[in-house]
């Protein structure tokens, strides 16, 4: 074995020397040691007359009857004695000097070597000030940006700033450009070790964007990278991140356990950017529609998991800034790549993200002299737009109605404070959502998740959630929200149905909302595009 | 291409002939046709001066500007015309005779050939009468059986009864015996094509038990098998079925869509048996503890998904009988392999499974003269045992308390009738769980799932759920339920905390429960096993 190790290490040194001093070696054949031993080697060769050592029977407990079977007990003793414990331990059971002599000390101990405790090597990631990347917002909803494209500009700078340190990577299943992050290619190409053709673009032997159409490999790469004290981001189509459900389970379990070990240094968080999301799979359709990864991670240890749904570009920048700097978390960010209205200035976005959930006073009819009649809440970019359009319709058709508009960017805020570090205290939640007024909540994913988070809240019986109900297909963007009852017209109908006294008085408004939905239905079949009043909709305060 | 197909088909025929007439050919080299074509072949060779055909640029939309760019439009027309549509379609746009001549008819049409519409071949699975396999239950809780082991006997008969038809298989990640289903080996060995050694057992060239330590492969095998009109069961460790989350998503989506196609014949359901579950990972610990697959599938189309938690052996038989006969569903059965008390006779089990959720009158204090003071509900084998032990403690310590014991085997019964085909009508739910009494619900998995299912129920604000809170480790069986507050003592404390008037009167009982939990804590540290009163507990009516 020692001889084989020597050969392998010499070969590695030679490959490194040739590459570093002479350059140009492509895809060397790294040495592989194949060690083949009998299964259950040195264990009992036979038990109860059946062969064990070297067979599949060694896979489990080879001597299952030691409590009751004298022969099993005798064989166990014989096996244990074959290790000659008297040479290894003294009469008090302590390891002898010759054993301890081989135990490493100082920085070579398992808990102290940066090879095993990668957090010791972690350096703060140079995330630049956001001001340079933030989009200007003179008034809400006047401009549109693709949030992930702007994030790409920020990530390009992070990539540049780490070009010497080389401790930041972006992994993804061949979707960096599809997810609109291609600006990063200006700072780093895609890692590529094979042949490069004339027609290829952005390939780089030393690239720190790592693409492979295997979510499993991306997850494995990034976990290993973070565990060795470095930083990264996994950008993925929302529906297909379920491929790594089982892997992220184990990473979260690992973080939960290791956070409690005082000697283990924190590592960078595992950051997911889920984009190309459920509401904008206009061409791919049902197979690409699944917002359930959030549900999956929210079952896991609250001290580890964080979920963010930034509703526009500046909030995405603020969330990215926070998550990239954070430690020991699994952060899930859900954000679209399609043009999205800019609602908040950078300062507003920072404040909104810091509080995690808050009132957008300019969108509702806030008036300190009266309580709202209804709360319209949104979480996610598409639901937020529908909430604002619904608020606008209400202002137009039912101007006397007091409407509060709330946006939730940090989903765990909905949990009780005792259930999650980000959980909102009851008094604050009650003040925001009221104890007794209808709350119409437009949510990005499966609606029952919001109930699962908020079921303990005082006003839960007044909470009505709209979201994705697994009704998917290839259709127009607005038709997706209509089919799932998340559209602005449906939200207005929900308000009319829930606010006491409106049902009769506002029956005509409700009817006109229903009519518009029917008109939508007919229009998309004839034109293949959304109603002009929807496609061209803008916010007017 | 035709030449290559001829060579391949001849080679296949030759392999089959040799094997069938001469026997004994191991692992033939099946022909593989490698077809290598330029990417985007016959599409535009250059667009905007950049090469497209034969390059990565063909991967997406090669001519993105046809609406605004005249040159793109011209290239698109040229490309489309290269297929010579005038030869394929007549002036009214209908395919010409020469095209239609090649279209298959009758049973060779895509929707009519059993190669594509496998349900046409489906035969009823010969599930034997359950009487022979059911365990005798003279009184509840007097005997113990390993539920999956008894199920194995039933499956052996199914395997035998299909030995000629060969249309039933069991797949699993090398866990058939570990999950206690090894009786099936008497009827069919494990499929094995490679070398067989003297020491090997249960291997068979034609075996219909298919084991491979890859949940992905198991899922793929079974999906293909069902889609071709046959039957099967996937037995898996509960925690690791998450590996196929993304695959089962697509199968459920496929079933949801195809159920609505009148020409598509139903196929056998995809049946999961999840065992080696969260509560009995005494040796494997935290990494093997995850009951969240149920949460994952319950996000999906209600017309497709069914979840069963049989609390004992006879209920498992009844659930298995139903699911193996069913069509077009994804059935998830969660059942333990450890010794479990037998609660119900076969007849009782059938009635209980048919109603999906019901009162166990013998376990509570049912009295038609009064309403219960509290409902103790359980779902899952381990929670059911804790519920019964709690009911017994209540009877002993608070004999005046009217306790209803409810067991839920079909989880979707908790949903409103309008949300799931198995959803329980409101009046029935209210009668079972009451509208206004505390319900202490001991659930097998993440507790918030029960809230997500029942949040619309009248009495939801009185529903208090205990379950797995992601507090896992390697410990004794009872310590797992104590750590997650699912144990009998905690349930009794919950009753005392929730039933009006008990808090003060029964404070001494509550204190003794707390004391027992503390005693448990000390005992397991000293002895490594559970308290004798827990380990030796039996039900006494």
Automatic annotation (TrEMBL), chains A, B:
GO molecular function: aldehyde-lyase activity; magnesium ion binding
One GO term (biological process): carbohydrate metabolic process
SUPFAM superfamilies recorded: Thiamin diphosphate-binding fold (THDP-binding)
Keywords: Lyase, Thiamine pyrophosphate
Domain Xylulose 5-phosphate/Fructose 6-phosphate phosphoketolase C-terminal: 337-539
Cofactor(s) the record lists: thiamine diphosphate
Domain Xylulose 5-phosphate/Fructose 6-phosphate phosphoketolase N-terminal: 1-120
Gene3D superfamilies xref list: 3.40.50.920, 3.40.50.970
Similarity-based family: Belongs to the XFP family.
Name of this protein: Putative phosphoketolase
């Amino acid at each position: 074995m020692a001889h084989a190790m020597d050969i392998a290490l010499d070969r590695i040194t030679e490959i490194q020397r040739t590459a570093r001093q002479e350059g140009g070696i492509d895809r060397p054949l790294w040495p592989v040691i194949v060690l083949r031993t009998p299964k259950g080697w040195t264990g009992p060769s036979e038990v109860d007359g059946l062969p064990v050592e070297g067979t599949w029977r060694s896979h489990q407990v080879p001597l299952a009857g030691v409590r009751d079977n004298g022969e099993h007990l005798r064989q166990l003793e014989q096996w244990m004695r074959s290790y000659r414990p008297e040479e290894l331990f003294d009469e008090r059971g302590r390891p002898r000097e010759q054993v301890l002599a081989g135990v490493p000390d100082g920085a070579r101990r398992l808990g102290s070597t940066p090879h095993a405790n990668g957090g010791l090597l972690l350096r703060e990631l140079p995330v630049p000030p956001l001001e340079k990347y933030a989009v200007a917002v003179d008034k809400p909803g006047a401009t549109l940006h693709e949030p992930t494209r702007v994030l790409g500009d920020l990530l390009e700078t992070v990539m540049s700033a780490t070009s010497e340190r080389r401790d930041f990577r972006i992994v993804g299943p061949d979707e960096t450009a599809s997810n609109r992050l291609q600006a990063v290619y200006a700072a780093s190409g895609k890692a590529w070790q094979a042949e490069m053709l004339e027609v290829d673009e952005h390939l780089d032997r030393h690239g720190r964007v790592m693409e492979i159409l295997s979510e499993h490999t991306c997850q494995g790469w990034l976990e290993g990278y973070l565990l060795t004290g470095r930083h990264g981001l996994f950008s993925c189509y929302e529906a297909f991140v379920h491929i790594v459900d089982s892997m992220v389970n184990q990473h979260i379990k690992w973080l939960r356990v290791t956070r409690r070990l005082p000697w283990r240094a924190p590592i960078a968080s595992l950051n997911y950017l889920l984009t190309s999301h459920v509401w904008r799979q206009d061409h791919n359709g049902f197979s690409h529609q699944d917002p359930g990864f959030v549900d999956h991670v929210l079952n896991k240890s609250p001290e580890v998991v964080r979920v963010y749904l930034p509703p526009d570009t500046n909030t995405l920048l603020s969330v990215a800034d926070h998550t990239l700097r954070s430690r020991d978390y699994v952060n899930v960010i859900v954000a679209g790549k399609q043009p999205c209205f800019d609602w908040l200035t950078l300062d507003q976005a920072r404040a909104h993200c810091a509080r995690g959930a808050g009132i957008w006073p300019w969108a509702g009819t806030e008036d300190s002299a009266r309580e709202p009649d209804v709360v319209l809440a949104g979480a996610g970019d598409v639901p937020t737009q529908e909430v604002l359009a619904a608020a606008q319709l209400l202002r137009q058709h039912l101007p006397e109605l007091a409407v509060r508009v709330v946006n939730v960017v940090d989903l765990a805020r909905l949990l009780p404070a005792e259930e999650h570090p980000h959980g909102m205290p009851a008094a604050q939640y009650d003040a925001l959502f009221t104890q007794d007024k209808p709350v119409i909540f437009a949510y990005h994913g499966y609606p029952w998740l919001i109930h699962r988070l908020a079921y303990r809240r005082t006003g839960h019986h007044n909470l009505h959630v709209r979201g994705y109900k697994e009704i998917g297909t290839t259709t127009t963007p607005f038709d997706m929200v209509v089919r799932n009852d998340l559209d602005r017209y449906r939200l207005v109908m929900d308000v009319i149905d829930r606010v006491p006294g409106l049902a009769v008085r506002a029956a005509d408004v409700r009817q006109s909302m229903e009519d518009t939905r029917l008109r939508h239905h007919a229009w998309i079949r004839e034109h293949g595009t959304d109603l002009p009043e929807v496609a061209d909709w803008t916010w007017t305060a």
